[in-house]
Amino acid sequence: MRLCVIAGDGIGREVTEVAVEVLTALLPGLQIMEHEAGWDTFCRTGTALPEATLASARACKAVLFGAVSSPARKVEGYRSPIVALRRALDCYANLRPTRSLPLAAGRPDLDLLIVRENTEDLYIGEEQSDGETATAIKRITRHASMQVAKVAFELAARRARQRLCIIHKANILPLTDGLFRDAARAAGANYPQVAVDELLVDTAALRLVQAPQAFDVLLAPNLYGDILSDLAAGLNGGLGLAPSLSVGQGVAIAEPVHGSAPDIAGQGIANPVAALLSAAMLLRHHWQLPVKADALESAIRQLLSAGIATADLGGTASTRAFGRAVLAQLAR
Ligand code: NAI
Ligand code: MG
């Protein structure tokens, strides 16, 4: 078994170090292939996603991605490597679960899954500006909408509540978001056991704050899925806890929802739980090792309920200390 590890920038490096150690303990035969991507790589080499990194990700079929820094201004030649990687590997669905953890900081009643379309929408990066007027293309295709919807319905059918809510803004964007909604509904026709609902994205944000326990699976186009999943992470104690897995045609990318967190990078205090839970998703969904995934998730829960946590959760553990505690818990 092989894993392509792309640590990236900032805390991406700190949290992947811990996740790799834990995965290696769980899978002693695992071969780790470390590769670079991100802003530092771009500054040094002129490309944010080197060919060798992409080739390794393809060959390994499993990727652990930390986080990268992307400038919030136009930089000639730079494109976010994670957006490019998802597209290049055709990881068209991003699974972003939020489940309550034993923490006072989070709500106790969360068990939802956001399935985010991962290849199109405003993330295609087609922008133009003459300095006075700027335009971005929002591209939605029936094909991409249907294929992500199939993943979402398949997962909803296997969950206890079997409910799926399609998120859109078709009242303002009837052609693009309307197509997403209609394609999703068409894909759902094959899953009569799943109760389908739809909500405008702004209302979905309101309801997520007011009554998140009412949600089971949410299916969203790329941008709304990105935003709502940070909101869901906030309900659960923060970005340091939010995992994700990008899936599609046989390659999977485990990627915490958070970014490179320049405000805390280099201090050794980043919360590795998001990366560890992403690794657990890789174990469960990609490598079909549910027992190992359960062991990792339950070790994390036990530590958190014992008050062992990083500073974002009010604890005193460093990133590495939390990692060592996970290893010790797994060895018990
Ligand atoms: P961010 O997710 O990096 O940080 C937001 C806030 O959450 C910060 O206060 C940070 O300290 C905190 N935080 C995030 N992860 C944490 C963790 N594991 N432990 C403790 N605290 C944590 O988002 P921000 O600041 O908006 O973006 C920073 C950079 O990250 C930008 O360059 C952005 O483009 C990039 N980014 C990259 C992503 C990726 O590589 N997948 C995703 C999101 C942002
Ligand atoms: Mg995001």
- Summarize the helix and strand pattern as letters: EHEHHEHEEEEHEHEHEHEEHHH
Any idea what the CATH architecture of the largest domain is? 3-Layer(aba) Sandwich
Q: If you compute it from the alpha carbons, what radius of gyration comes out, rounded to the nearest whole angstrom?
A: 19 Å
* Overall strand count: 12
Instruction: Specify the number of helices.
Output: 11
What does the secondary structure layout of this molecule look like, with pairings?
Blueprint: E1 2-8, H1 11-26, E2 31-35, H2 39-45, H3 51-60, E3 62-67, H4 81-88, E4 93-99, E5 111-117, E6 127-129, E7 134-136, H5 142-157, E8 163-168, H6 176-188, E9 195-200, H7 201-210, E10 217-220, H8 222-235, E11 245-247, E12 252-254, H9 273-286, H10 290-305, H11 319-331
Parallel strand pairs: 1-2, 1-3, 3-12, 5-10, 8-9, 8-10
Antiparallel strand pairs: 4-5, 4-11, 6-7, 11-12
Helix pairs in contact: 1-9, 1-11, 5-6, 7-8, 9-10, 10-11
The structure holds 1,4-dihydronicotinamide adenine dinucleotide and magnesium ion.
Family: Belongs to the isocitrate and isopropylmalate dehydrogenases family.
Keywords: Oxidoreductase
Protein name: NAD-dependent isocitrate dehydrogenase
